[in-house]
Amino acid sequence: MDSLEKFATEKLAELEAQHLRRWLVETDRTEDAIAIRNGKRLISFCCNDYLNLSQHPEVKQAVIAATQRFGAGAGASRLVSGNHSLYGELEAALARLKGTEAACVFGSGYLANLGIIPALVGSGDLILADALSHACLLAGGRLSGAQTLIFRHNDMAHLAELLRIHRKTYRHCLILTDGVFSMDGDLAPVRELAEIAHACDAWLMTDDAHGIGVLGDGRGSSFADGGKADVPLQMGTLSKAVGVYGGYICASHAVIDLIRTRARTLIYSTGLPPGVAAAAIASLEIIARGPQLRAAPLHKARRFTRAMNLPDAQSPIVPLIIGDAARALALSTMLEEAGFLVTAIRPPTVPDGTARLRFTFTAAHQDADIDRLASTLQMAGLT
Ligand SMILES: *Cc1c(COP(=O)(O)O)cnc(C)c1O
Fold it and tell me: How far does the centroid of ligand 1 lie from the alpha carbon of residue 134, in Å?
């Protein structure tokens, strides 16, 4: 066996022994929260399509119409000839929603973070990141060459202490956090973060992948408490509640122009297909006109947390920490047998020893299904 084959085979065996090997399982999604897996119809509680907009007739029609009219792909980077006119419309809608001067759309949320962070900071600068920040925020930080320090999850005293000790040694400072933590469902104290950042001349960037469409009247985590936190860099994705694909950042004109000029994942990657941009515009319109739709995922999540005697959900994401990866996998199989799709989330996606079931709630979930999910878990000894 050559060394590449040997490396791959041995590495897989090692991961399998730790219950950390991963598999792609074919899953077809049909209407609302239904997934078809191994020929079986399951109610999915692990999809980020919080408003079920990926299945919405108007959104699907927007993809079809724009594709018929403009073609299937963008054909080039936006900086060359791929900057379709639909992009401007989509960016204007995002800026309006987030209350900023401008916005810039990327190929995905992951690509956005890999592009934005190195465009803003580099060697000689400091990044302070929440310990539970999404992998792509940390990857963007690493790519930037800035010094990255981690503060304990949502611990503002720790952040302030790190700033007091280290801020003066560096030119610029960027604070990174999820607005809604993707694997825990709790919220960052965005208003407090904004105040701390302001006091230390640090720039606050929130990754609001799970906030747009479902929190703060659909405007995201900066608006979750009813006001508007002063967050100069609001990043997010179009692939969750918006139901389509793509990443974005909302900021001032000057910051967006700099990102358009410098973000390598924008410059050296092809623009989103026109159909995707058109679908995202259609979704944002549905979000804008649907206060009940926007509020529904959080209500459903709270129905579940109440049934499970857990603290009230703060977002549509509710984790049940199991600890052991093998046990989390076994519980996921048990739920599948009961008709529910809930994937086990294991390290390194979450810290060692905190493997979990991660439940996500969407507007289309039926109350009776949520109640049956909770009673199934309770019968398995989880309360
Ligand atoms: C899903 C997610 C991303 C990545 O977004 P994609 O558009 O799927 O690439 C980034 N950040 C957070 C917090 C996420 O949950």
Answer: 7
What are 228-263's pLDDT values in tens digits? 999 999 999 999 999 999 999 999 999 999 999 999
Listed residue (232, 180, 229, 178) closest to 207, CA to CA: 178
Could you give the CA distance from residue 145 to residue 143 in angstroms, rounded to a whole number?
6
Nearest to 20 by CA among 249, 368, 346, 365: 346
Give residue-wise pLDDT tens across range 298-352: 999 999 999 999 999 999 999 999 999 999 999 999 999 999 999 999 998 999 9
CA angle 161/166/171 to nearest 5° reads 135
Residues in contact with ligand 1 by the CB-under-6-Å rule are: 108-110, 134, 136, 178, 182, 207, 209-210, 237, 239, 247
Backbone dihedral region for residue 296 (phi beyond 0: left; psi -120 to 50: alpha; all else: beta): alpha
Question: How long a stretch of residues is the chain?
Answer: 383
Q: Ligand 1 test: best mutation among 186, 237, 272, 350, most atoms within 8 Å of CB?
A: 237
Three-class DSSP category at 42: strand
- The alpha carbon of 306 and the centre of ligand 1 are apart by a number of angstroms equal to 28
Q: Where are the beta strands (DSSP E) in the chain?
A: 27-29, 34-37, 40-44, 102-106, 126-130, 147-151, 173-178, 203-207, 233-237, 247-251, 317-323, 340-341, 344-345, 355-360
Which residue has the CA at smallest separation from atom 1 of ligand 1? 209
Catalytic sites, residue numbers: 182, 210, 240
Are 331 and 380 in contact by the 8 Å Cβ rule? The answer is yes
User: Residue 214 contacts by C-beta under 8 Å, 6 or more apart in sequence?
Assistant: 50, 51, 241, 294, 297, 298, 315, 316
pLDDT digits (tens, 9 = 90+) for 115-160: 999 999 999 999 999 999 999 999 999 999 999 999 999 999 999 9
Nearest ligand 1 atom to alpha carbon 134: 13
Pocket test for ligand 1, best of 49, 137, 182 (most atoms within 8 A of CB): 182
Q: Using CA positions, which residue lies closest to atom 7 of ligand 1? A: 109
The residue nearest atom 2 of ligand 1, judged by CA position, is: 209
CA of 67 to the centre of ligand 1 (A): 25
